[in-house]
Amino acid sequence: MTVRDDVPESAPAQPKPASSWRTRLRTVVLVIVLVAAAAAIARNWRELVEALGELSPWAVVAASPFSLAAMIISLFTWRSLMADFGAPLRRGDAARIFYLSQLGKYIPGSIWSMISQAELARDLHVPRRTTLTVGVLTIVIAQGIGLPLAIVTLPFAAPNAAERYWWIALVAPLFLAVLHPKLLTWLLNKVLRLVRRPRSTTRRRGAGCSARRHSRPACG
Questions:
Q1: How far apart are CA 130 and CA 137, in angstroms?
Q2: Any idea where the domains of the chain sit in the sequence?
Q3: How far lies 12's CA from each of 40, 92, 96, 117, in Å?
Q4: How many CA atoms lie within 13 A of 33 on its CB side?
């Protein structure tokens, strides 16, 4: 991404105590999420049991390491982007924010996980616009990586789906092009200008949390 070398290095801020009303609100939201998750499981219980019955135990065992790796890589990607946008987080804080926010996916709507990230990160003095911007970029990166993988695997996993979604092969190169740092930063700055937000800046191209030795204590 475009770099501004004058952006100072910043250590992760210490968590600030949440106010009583925010604590109560989070408790209510957590209860809503758990109820929504339970309702979703109950509503689709028959389909869930049938799907589990069709899975081979060996297939589940073989796929589990890849699923775990995907979850860890997603966390590292999100944490690295947060650091590049001037909000380095310690591993424990990043994991808590990222994984807890995923519970928001059980609430109808596709934005609750990002809103949860923004609210949880506020306890570490991270601006909401930074967390929301990183959340959008994380989705874009995931799509840019997932679409080419879908092109390769769909013909083997679901031939009928491959015939139906052939147009993915046309869209995937566009997502890959958008992932180029220069183009991605240009598009992001255009969007931020439309919503009248400050331009995007990063500490260093691809710096993340581990590129510089002196940044590791801030991110560790």
A1: 11
A2: 20-219
A3: 37, 12, 15, 16
A4: 16
Q: Which of 85, 73, 82, 68 is nearest to 120 (CA)?
A: 82
pLDDT per residue over 136-145, tens digit each?
A: 888 888 888 8
Contact at 8 Å (CB) between 114 and 98? no
Nearest CA to 172 out of 147, 196, 191 is that of: 147
Q: Token pair 């424990």 is at which residue?
A: 92
Burial grade of 168 (CB within 10 A; 0-12, 13-18, 19 or more): middle
The residues that bridge with 202 in the sheet, in sequence order, are 3
Tally of CA atoms within 13 A in the half-sphere of 215 that contains its CB: 19
Q: Which residues of the chain have pLDDT under 50?
A: 1-9, 203-207, 209-218
pLDDT of residue 80: 93
Torsions phi, psi of 124, nearest 5? -105, 20
| φ/ψ (deg, to 5) at 14 | -75, 145
User: Residue 197 has which token pair?
Assistant: 């937000």
Query: Which tens digit of pLDDT belongs to each residue from 94-107?
Result: 999 999 888 877 77
**Strand-pair partners of 3:** 202
d(CA 57, CA 197): 50
Distances (CA, A) of 166 to 30, 88, 147, 161: 40, 40, 11, 8
The pTM of the full predicted model, rounded to 2 decimals, is: 0.69
Residue 3 sits at φ, ψ, to 5 deg, of -115, 140
Which of 12, 178, 143, 17 has the alpha carbon at shortest distance from 85?
Answer: 12
